[in-house]
Write a structure and sequence with these properties.
The chain has one domain: TIM Barrel. With about 350 residues, the protein is of the alpha/beta class. Helix 4 packs parallel to helix 6. Helices cover about 30% and strands about 15% of the residues. The chain is globular, with a radius of gyration of 20 Å. The chain is built from twelve helices and twelve strands. It has a twelve-stranded mixed beta sheet with strand order 7-8-9-6-5-4-3-2-1-10-11-12. It binds S-adenosylmethionine and iron/sulfur cluster (2 copies).
Length: about 350
């Protein structure tokens, strides 16, 4: 491994450092959001990963330790639905004990659909989880049930959000994927519901991840349009990003009722600052959300490799990275309908 890598200054071919690690802990989910796991595709015949294929908590923690030594400062647990992984709070406890070379704790966050959060929030907080994001695509119960496509009531997810607040998570991020014609009627109701609550709603453009969600550009509601809509009702001003590589552009309500974020992955690609690496449930690393293939680390882990060898493999993989799919899509150089099979969102976790 070169000395820059060992000092946590590993950079890719476009000069981007490695800072964020997203770990998918399961490819399973109890929801069937049409933009992620459409019911027709992810039905009883779909083969999910077998238990022996999943990285164990010890394996995940060992890899995370190597990544942290190489510059990772933020870890996000995701899935599928991460709270469905048995004893997930044990993994949180193990990861929260990691320290950066400067001796600091890692920023440890988790994204959930909130369905079992009411039961888990306190245990997650006690285990050392720093922050939490809950996906809520509508406040209207009928629309919410349609979006998750398993008839799950919004009240139970809102109860999960309330439990998380009681457990001490603040600010809680609320993620809403906006599909034009499906839940764009919910933008203002979401704003009204969460304004002044301390939670930060982040509106996410519907992305062409994977190849099963029937993505169409005309179902993408550009963030600029969304901000104009909200601004007309509740005037907003732009905020400066708090860190390089932040995915959301932040806006503040002028009347002091808090802030919102917009994630414009389609209309304003942010690949230039992309410092994210993704680890799949069965131990493959992916350099981009739109990648076709990953690099297998599980074989190294289970084949008796030393940490140094794993570290140098990671350094090699990252230093070769030149992914920037969203920028290429925006410039017309990449075609979302090319037919090439890409990884799916429920598998890699966003
Ligand atoms: N199940 C958890 C949840 O829904 O929060 C975690 C995994 S989910 C794949 C992570 C995030 O990706 C969620 O906020 C979800 O709404 C978002 N997402 C999934 N598919 C998407 C798509 N096609 N476009 C934009 N965001 C998407
Ligand atoms: Fe499940 Fe999250 Fe995908 Fe919805 S977005 S199907 S909750 S993994
Ligand atoms: Fe990063 Fe790939 Fe998304 Fe660009 S398209 S921001 S490189 S994950």
């Amino acid at each position: 491994m070169d000395s820059d890598a060992s000092l946590g200054r590993l950079t890719d071919r476009l000069g981007r450092p490695l800072r964020d690690l997203r770990i998918s802990v399961t490819d399973r989910c109890n929801f069937r959001c049409s933009y992620c796991m459409p019911k027709e595709v992810f039905d009883r015949r779909h083969a999910f990963l077998a238990h022996r294929e999943l990285l164990s908590f010890e394996e995940i923690t060992r890899l995370a330790r190597v990544f942290v030594a190489q510059g990772v400062r933020k870890i996000r647990l995701t899935g599928g639905e991460p709270l469905l992984r048995k004893d997930i709070e044990h993994l949180v406890r193990m990861l929260s004990a990691l320290r950066t070379p400067e001796g600091r704790a890692v920023d440890l966050t988790l994204t959930t659909n909130g369905s079992v959060l009411a039961k888990k929030a306190h245990a997650l907080r006690d285990a050392g989880l720093s922050r939490i994001a809950v996906s809520v695509d509508a406040i209207d119960d009928a629309i919410f049930r349609r979006m998750n496509d398993v008839d799950f009531p919004v009240a139970d997810v809102l109860e999960g959000v309330a439990s998380a607040a009681r457990a001490g998570f603040a600010p809680i991020k609320i993620n809403m994927v906006v599909k034009r014609g499906t839940n764009d009627s919910q933008i203002l109701p979401m704003v009204e519901h969460f304004r002044g609550s301390g939670a930060i709603v982040r509106f996410i453009e519907f992305m062409d991840v994977g190849t099963t969600n029937g993505w169409r550009m005309d179902e993408v509601l550009p963030s600029a349009e969304l901000v104009a809509l909200i601004n007309a009702r509740h005037p907003l001003e732009a905020l400066q990003p708090t860190e390089v590589g932040e995915t959301a552009q932040r806006w503040r309500y002028l009347d002091g009722a808090g802030e919102i974020g917009v994630i414009s992955s389609v209309t304003q690609a942010f690949c230039r600052d992309c410092t994210r690496l993704r680890l799949s449930t069965e131990g493959k690393v992916y350099l981009c959300l739109f990648a076709h293939q990953g690099h297998d680390l599980r074989t190294l882990l289970r084949g008796g490799c030393e940490d140094e060898q794993i570290a140098s493999t990671i350094a090699q993989i990252w230093s070769q990275r030149e992914d920037r799919y969203s920028e290429l899509r925006s410039s017309g150089a990449a075609n979302p309908e090319s037919g090439v099979r890409r990884i799916e969102m429920h598998y890699i976790g966003g």
